């Protein structure tokens, strides 16, 4: 139905229970689960891999970088949430930049991703700290964006600097 791949960002308790619902969707490439909701993160990683998908683990702003040490070698990406969970439009948490640096240094083999309030003002900060992947929804489709195409071009320029 689409040439695009899907990335599932499971912001749910018991993420394993939600995987089978996506098994027949051929364009699923990656599944990200939140460390804070997984009682047994290694089992979540194994369940995602069983389906043939890439694995990402997300951590909230208040979660220390050290919390992912046990599973960092089993995942493709560690994604730092750069906003506190809740409704869209929450402010960027600048303290997360230090965590991004720490994770990029400790786990150079893993993609360091960011999600939440990523736009022209914050993308460069995240990339300079060590992020290698960014979700830029509000930076393209946010209420202060007049042209998604122009915003996309600007974000690509910032990412390449």
Task: Give the topology.
Elements: E1 6-10, E2 28-34, H1 41-50, E3 54-59, E4 77-81, H2 96-106, E5 111-115, H3 123-129, E6 133-135, H4 137-141, H5 148-160
Parallel strand pairs: 1-2, 2-3, 3-4, 4-5, 5-6
Can you put this structure into words, describing what you see?
The chain is an alpha/beta fold and 161 residues long. The protein has a single domain, classed as TIM Barrel, CATH 3.20.20. The chain is built from five helices and six strands; from the N terminus they run ββαββαβαβαα. The chain has a six-stranded parallel sheet with strand order 1-2-3-4-5-6. β5 (111-115), α3 and β6 (133-135) form a beta-alpha-beta unit. The protein is globular and about 40 Å long.
Radius of gyration: 16 Å
CATH architecture: Alpha-Beta Barrel
Q: How many discrete structural domains?
A: 1
Number of strands: 6
The dominant shape is: globular
Q: Please work out how many helical segments DSSP would assign.
A: 5
